[in-house]
Amino acid sequence: MKRRTFIQNTALGSFGVVAGTAVMACQEKTSETNSKNVLPNTNSPLVIATWNVPEATGKAWEIIEKGGTSLDAIEQGCNVEEANAEGQSVGIGGLPDRDGNVTLDACIMDSEGNYGAVVYLQNIKHPISVARKVMENTPHVILAGKGAEQFALSEGFQKENLLTEASKKAWEEWKIKSEYQPIINIENHDTIGMLAIDKNGDISGGCTTSGLAYKMAGRVGDSPIIGSGLFIDNEVGGATATGLGEEVLKTVGSFLIVELMRQGKSPQEACEEAIRRIVSKNPNHKDFQVGYIALNKKGETGFYSIHKGFSVTQFLEGSQAQIPSNHFLD
Ligand code: ASP
Fold first, then answer.
1. pTM (predicted TM-score)
2. Catalytically annotated residues
3. Which one of 1.25.40.20, 3.60.20.30, 1.20.120.450, 3.20.20.70 gives the CATH number of domain 3-316?
4. How far apart are CA 255 and CA 240, in angstroms?
């Protein structure tokens, strides 16, 4: 499924689907403001991700089911989308910046509070795996640009051209239409944010993206930044974001959600509050989208976005289809 259709998707309406044990859920607005979780709650392991990515979440679930760690599940689940050349928002095939360069951002965080990230990484299709290497094999937490690429090569990653023909064509068409102004494209952003609980009850998360399509060279969004695109606290839960990174960064959204859960809010209530913070500061919020997903230690999940069109995929034992409601503000 092509997911780069935040605002445009709004015309499609809402749906919920069960595929095996996966629940893929799109939002549906109802009149009443409901802060209860509407996805199945569980004390068992689970995987939840932004967007309609059953292959990626399915891979993560396969690892969890076999007794693997949530960290391995996150990395390998995200790898699936990163290797998908047809997806134009993550890994190979990601839409380039205004100059035609594909630059990737990713981060990963484990149940012990360790974190690793890469920003502005080029020519390496698995930034989440490089982020894990940064976390495990360096004394640092973020590597950027050329340094990140050199580190990846030294760790055995292959250099490859990430600009596919389809993405090059899209960029060339965009250049003809565009006045090449440094404005934020509201219509071109999606990110895989994934959270998982393993059989041990341990939580990890990851976030991987090519960022805003046709962004200014050098631009980095929320996705690789701890507390903004992702935050995990194994005592409380985790949260991750997709959408206009500048707004997530300004409100440190994922950290906010985890802290709200620590204070007793459910994942759903916490996601709603984080979206309200953005909307209350932005009279122009009609022009952009942000979506959050969250889970807590009990295995309760929540998700919320500013506008209709956001979706999540969740895998858990014996899940039942539930059509979610009230999962967007406008
Ligand atoms: N949050 C990402 C960024 O701002 C984009 C996205 O979610 O599509 O880079």
1. 0.88
2. 191
3. 3.60.20.30
4. 9
